[in-house]
Amino acid sequence: MAVAAPALAPPAVLPGAPPRALRSVPPAPAGGRPRRVPRDPFVDVVRAIGTVAVVLLHWLMAEATWDGSTLQVGNALGHGSAWVLTWGQPLALLFFASGASGAYQRVATATAGRRWAGVLGSALRSVARPVGAFVVAWGAGVAVLLAAGVPDDAVWRMARMAPQLLWFLAVWVVLLALVPVLQAAWRRWRWGALALAVALPLAVDALRFGLPGDTTTALAGANVVLAWAAPFLAGVAYATERSQPRRPEAGSGRGGRAVLVAVGLAAALATAALVAVGPYPRSLIGMPGDAISNLGPPTAPIVTHAVALVCAVLLARRAAVRWATSPGGRAVTSTLARRSMTVYLWHLTAMFAVVGAALLGLGQELPASWGADWWASRPVWFAAYLLVLLVLVRAFGRFEDRRRTVPQRGSGTP
Question: pTM for the full model?
């Protein structure tokens, strides 16, 4: 049940729109207000995939024991070959969707001559309510649990783990503020800007492990932003190109798809080689017992893995859009877009509630990870997690609703 550097699914702030990909941004009407522009269903699909992957990956981690006084928390993904599942961690997809959303909104608001600082302030206010509700609710919950006699060790252990989900917000704020700069860099240097975005965190990592002593610790911390700037800039580039009139779709030509295949395969092989050679652990999330974590701060394998993931989703874009524009796909993506922040904030709490009730309330033990009982019980445990999560989403989802101050219908700011 340990949580190591969880991913944040970027919440959609803007309302839904016709399921048609954004091709160009119309000129602003009189009065300086930008027109409403359609959502890009591909960005919604990427965000939905990332949200679901985050939830499932965290729910697979559940591993804990209670001896009556001490709560021991482990990670089911740390056993045997389960580390392979960590290669499905979706952080790069979420940052890609965040970058695309920010770029779409930047293009739309620029047509009206609006300042990006105002858009940034609006986005920050939009996440303040659900995050504030989460913090207040957890504070009240801790007080109630302690007053009810729940052992202090268990309560404070969960209370320390829950806020780990908020790490993304600091990175998101920095990157969102830099959208105008990143968009200008793409327009001026094109692929050179993307190459630099990938090279910088790799260079930082080389210095981190190549220089003697601990003098590079602070430098390595820069990769908390730099590593995620690469997929974020890829999203910015994607949305910037699609917002231009008469631009071909990214990767739509045979040559473009061949490049995506080549780059994606090279990045995947580089990730495998880096992990094989070391000093990087095999898991792409933090694991108990590992000397270092590939996510804290992000390492070179995380960067190459991000490149591979972005190439993979771009190659699948046409299929993703077809699904997103179908009735079933539209329902799924629109629902997750409206409640992605709430789902993200509360999915661990749902897991804590179920596991805590089983361990502390019913005195049950969790089945041994990856054993026959563990596999047989997964549907029951996951159904319980989902039921509690749905209750929490219904209770706290209202805090994700807000009056939309940005009038266009882009892909939503993260």
Answer: 0.85
